Amino acid sequence: MKKIIWFLVILLIILFVFLVGTGKLSNVLNKKSNEIEPVSQETISYDEYSRGNLIINGLTIPVIIANDTEKHIKGLSNRLLLPEDEGMFFVFEEPAEYMFWMKDMQFPLDIIWFSKDLEIIHLESNLPPETYPDYFGPKKDSMYVLEVKAGFGTKNNLKIGDKAEFLP
């Protein structure tokens, strides 16, 4: 039994020396629990996401599709960029009042809510990451939400009542 205890003590000492030597221990000790380090675009994989196109007023928007709870939660958080005329399209199973916030966002967004018939029912423009923990959304049911770079809605003259078509 004493041999096992000594073995564990020596193993812990070796681990401690390794962490101190590589600087990892100070990183762990100095990190605040609520700190989230932004990850690079390359480390966020959207390979498991479907893609499609949303057409509004003749404009075709390539979209990454978030169609389950895990993807809804992840959204565009910690992503460093989004191509100019692309977006993330959130597809929900049923209409409800879906609220969005800017948690862990690295750039401002326009967020556009659609009815179950793909009609724009609400728009929020130029939401900066600093608005977190505020959240945004319509006071009525939506079934789809589009996140795009800030200024996209104004640039493309999108407005409440515009109809969209989704092509998977």
TrEMBL record:
Gene3D superfamilies recorded: Protein of unknown function DUF192
Official protein name in the record: DUF192 domain-containing protein
InterPro entries, per the entry: DUF192 (IPR003795), Saro_0823-like_sf (IPR038695)
Taxonomic classification: Bacteria, Candidatus Nomuraibacteriota
One Pfam match: DUF192
Species, as recorded: Candidatus Nomurabacteria bacterium RIFCSPLOWO2_01_FULL_33_24
